[in-house]
Write a structure and sequence with these properties.
The chain is of the alpha+beta class. The protein is built from 16 helices and 14 strands. It is globular and about 75 Å long.
């Protein structure tokens, strides 16, 4: 079962997992109204893998596994592999307009990246190296959907984990035995946790200090593991016709806190433990960044391109599409799309082979540009929606069905635009509101702004690791010496 269908994905979620919403236990996540729309969207993504129009992009024949697998699991060894991976990320993101930031392909790509770096995990132990390669094979062969939990609860940020008033709140090891690690505590923010198959835990940011060894663990467990609870935030999904809530009725990703009550993690699912120096090197030296940022920037390209198209249509509906000021703003939007679009393609063209495993990795500096600019570009383009829509966002009908009611004629006259009916213009404006005015839209803006972590740390890291710095400094030195 290397490539699942949507029906198989949904069936796999009926596994007795312990999920809580509004203080009540959810008996069946697949039939819970707050989760159903996103689960349906994810299921359509799995079905897309079997669609003849997309099958050869979304999946591939794997020589390593001897069967067909989802493209995100493929080990890239040629530039064509990287191109097809990017195309598969775009193909997957397009039906959801890039709104599912934690779709299956993101963590699938990460697991592949970890699985092809057993030499790194062998520094912890040979058993950890075997565990990560075995887990990668298991996830790929079963086409499973992962989420991850990286962050600790926001407690006293001036203290280390073991210095907190309750050092047992952040997730830590409380026992080691012949069966595995027993962990207790909490992690957040696990996006899509209620309807993922598996949970990957690794602590972030990589700034562990002496005394925090019990908190330095990387492992994975099924979401129905005994002792694991998933606590959901309030849903931002809109329950109404899709024409009135084009995005929020379909694509609200649930975010959750995961609570571990003395959970046993078997040794064959433990990839790193108790080594803070190794954990601090994981994010960089596993090279997961190059692989996941390739997916991240491809998805963001789809999302920003969707917003750009909406801006153009809003301008036309207002009769402003040829206005110099509006054209300048639309040009700025187009530039932002192209910058993000260029990061993946540039990274592919500058890809290099890692001698350790023969894997072709896309260029990190090119991808980091997208990670640094995406959190700026997204809110800027959302503000363009607000600017171009103006007060029209406020005076919209409750439902587009009102155009078929006795007040429909009055609505049509008051809401018509430049060469567009009142109903069609209202449909555009409702989409705009979903992006820039609703709780769903606010969550997405906050999500994209924080997607790559704390911005100053990200930029400092880019400067610290910038691989082309020496080339440019050598040019400057040569120029100065030649004066």
């Amino acid at each position: 079962m290397a490539v699942r269908t949507g029906e198989q994905f949904i069936a796999g979620l009926r596994d007795g997992r312990d999920v809580w919403y509004d203080g009540k236990q959810v008996e069946d996540v697949t039939r819970f109204s707050e989760f159903e729309p996103s689960i349906a969207a994810l299921a359509r993504g799995y079905d897309l893998q079997h669609d003849p129009a997309h099958r050869d992009i979304a999946t591939c024949a794997s020589p390593e596994f001897g069967e067909r697998i989802a493209r995100a699991f493929e080990i890239p060894r040629t530039m064509e592999h990287l191109r097809l991976k990017r195309e598969s990320f775009i193909t997957t993101a397009t039906p959801t307009c890039g709104m599912l930031g934690r779709g299956p392909d993101f963590l699938n790509a990460m697991i592949m990246a970890l699985g092809v770096k057993p030499t790194f995990f062998a520094e912890c132990s040979p058993q950890c190296a075997d565990a990560i390669t075995g887990y990668y094979e298991y996830i790929a062969r079963n086409d499973l959907y992962l989420t991850h939990a990286l962050l600790d609860p926001q407690l006293d940020k001036g203290k280390l984990r073991h210095e907190q008033s309750d050092p047992g709140t952040p997730l830590r090891v409380v026992e080691r035995n012949s069966d595995g690690l027993v962990v207790h505590g909490m992690k957040r923010i696990a996006t899509a946790a209620p309807y993922a198959d598996e949970l990957l835990v690794w602590p972030f940011p990589p700034t562990f200090r002496p005394g925090e060894e019990d908190y330095a663990n990387v492992f994975a467990i099924p979401m129905n593991t005994k002792g694991l609870k998933t606590l959901c935030r309030r849903s931002f999904a809109s329950h109404g016709p899709r024409e009135d809530f084009p995005l929020s009725a379909q694509f609200d990703e649930m975010d959750a806190t995961v609570v571990f009550d003395h959970v046993l993690v078997p040794w064959d699912r433990v990839f790193l433990h108790g080594d803070i120096a190794l954990l601090n090197r994981l994010y960089k030296e596993s090279r997961m960044r190059e692989i996941t940022a390739h997916q991240t920037n491809a998805r963001l390209e789809v999302k920003l391109g969707f917003i750009y198209a909406l801006l153009v249509e809003l301008a036309r509906a207002a009769g402003l599409d040829q206005h110099p000021g509006t054209m300048e703003m639309l040009g700025e939007a187009a530039v932002r799309v192209e910058v993000i679009r260029s990061t993946t393609r540039s990274a592919e063209l500058q890809a290099t082979v890692d001698a350790d495993n023969g894997v072709l990795y896309p260029d990190l500096p090119a991808l980091q540009a997208g990670r640094a600019l995406g959190p700026i570009y997204y809110p800027e383009m959302i503000n363009m929606i607000r600017k171009i829509s103006g007060g029209g966002l406020i005076q919209l009908p409750v439902s587009l069905a009102e155009f078929d009611s006795p007040i429909g004629e009055a609505l049509e006259k008051s809401l018509a635009g430049a060469g567009i009916s009142g109903r069609d213009k209202s449909a555009l404006m409702k989409l705009a509101w979903d992006l820039c005015g609703s709780e769903f839209g606010a969550r997405h803006e906050l999500y994209e702004m924080n997607y790559a972590g704390e911005r100053s740390a990200l930029l400092a890291g880019i400067q610290r690791e910038y691989s082309r710095a020496g080339h440019y400094r050598d040019h400057l030195t040569a120029f100065m010496e030649g004066l």
